[in-house]
Amino acid sequence: MPAVPVVQARLSELVAALGGELVGDPALTVEAIAPLDRAGPRHISFLAQPRLLPQLATTAAACVVVRPEHQAQAAARGAAIVTADPYLYFARLTQWWAARTRVRPVAGIHPAAVIEPGAQVHPGAAIGALAFVGAGARIADGAVVSAQAFVGADAEVGEGTWLGPRVVFERGCRIGARGLVQAGAVIGGDGFGFAPSQGQWVKIEQLGAVRIGDDVEIGANTCIDRGALDDTVIEDGVKLDNLIQIGHNCHIGAHTAMAGCTGVAGSTRIGRHCTAGGSAMILGHLEIADHVHISAATVVSRSIRKPGHYSGFFPIDDNASWEKNAATLKQLHTLRDRIRALENKP
Fold first, then answer.
1. Residue 26 has pLDDT above 80, yes or no
2. pTM reported for the whole predicted model
3. Active-site positions?
4. Is 2.40.50.180 the CATH classification of the domain at 9-101?
5. Domain at 108-310, CATH from 2.40.160.100, 3.30.450.20, 2.160.10.10, 3.30.700.20
6. Measured between alpha carbons, how far is 200 from 258 in angstroms, rounded to an integer?
7. Mean pLDDT (whole number) for 246-273
């Protein structure tokens, strides 16, 4: 098992920082986080899914984070931290661990970076080797522009926001505080806009930008296109996985989350607290209400006005059966008309 970085942490220290009710020896020390089935006597683990309950009795973990209903079973085998939401506790525990094991870049500008005249880089920001910051750009306190990242002219990077290696953050784009943009993402590339003319395509210049709020995370190689006239908008707290495409002039509401390979075509508005499973496809110029949850691989071809969970994919089957069912599906309209005709017969 790849080792989580070692931290010597007493259980009393973890509970003081993160809360929860400790059952067991407060002086017991753990060194890493591990899954139940692979944890050893120096690990802390967690039980978030009831289906993994059988592993609680067999795990070698020094301490397990559990719900109140599993306290007795956990205490029978060793130390436990009891909390209402073990998965949330795990998330906060990983943040606590990372803060003690990851070395943050030292503030300052690497000698191999290029900072154009007129750019404003706060003394508390860190600009990595071979990074580029364009004229008029503003990099706030605590921001990190990693090696080979590009920040275009007049762009703004907010306080504590981290741009990973080879990120492209184009001209005039803005991101708020505490953001994270993973390696290779492209923010503010041109939207896909062309007008047909005599069998050819005439480019529509993309004159808008991208506006990103606070606490937004954007995965590796994800692309968010700039707007044609108005800006593309990503509100506070949005979480985008790797390899996602957000088209020009989209508006993504606060705290919406999308899994990898999701695509959103241009000018679609998605509400707050929505989710999209991996490879979901959302067509352009649609309106998606708040609290809409879209299953993986679903194609959304119409606006969704009511909160709820929506799915639209053809179930997997062996190929011969799938072809027969697909052929039948194509005839449903004709079959419906025949049934209506039979129903209307005297």
1. yes
2. 0.92
3. 248
4. no
5. 2.160.10.10
6. 35
7. 98
